[in-house]
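Residues determine shape. Next comes a sample protein:
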Amino acid sequence: MRKAVVYFVDERGKNPVAEFIEKLMPDERVKCLEYIAQLENYGEEVRRPLGDYLGDKLYELRPKQNRILYAFFMKDHVVLLHAFRKKTNAVPKEHLAISKVRMANVIKRFESGKIII
C-alpha cells in the first residue's frame, strides 16, 4: 500500500505545505511529519483520528490543531496540497477551494509535461 508522497510546488517554486510545517513549533512539526509518514505507509487505509475523507477526492491529515489537505494522484502518489491551523469544526471552504485549484494545477502541468511524477 506504500505511496510516494510529493509536495505541491507552484510555478514559482514555492512549496506551501513544507513552508507551513517549517514554521510550526518543533513538537507540532514532528507530529505533522509522523502523520505524513503514516500516509506514505498506509495510503488509502489512513482513517480517523489520523486522517479523513473530505469529499471531491480531497482528504485531510489531522495532526493536533493542524490540517494537511491532500489528494491521491495516479496509482501510487499522494500530493500534499495545502496546510493550515484549524480553528473551526468544519474545514473552511476557502481551504478546500485552494486545494482543488492546486490539484487542478498539478493535473494540468502533468498532462502538459511540465512536471514528471
User: Anything to note?
Assistant: The chain has one domain: 4-111. Strands lie at 4-7, 51-55, 58-61, 66-73, 77-85.
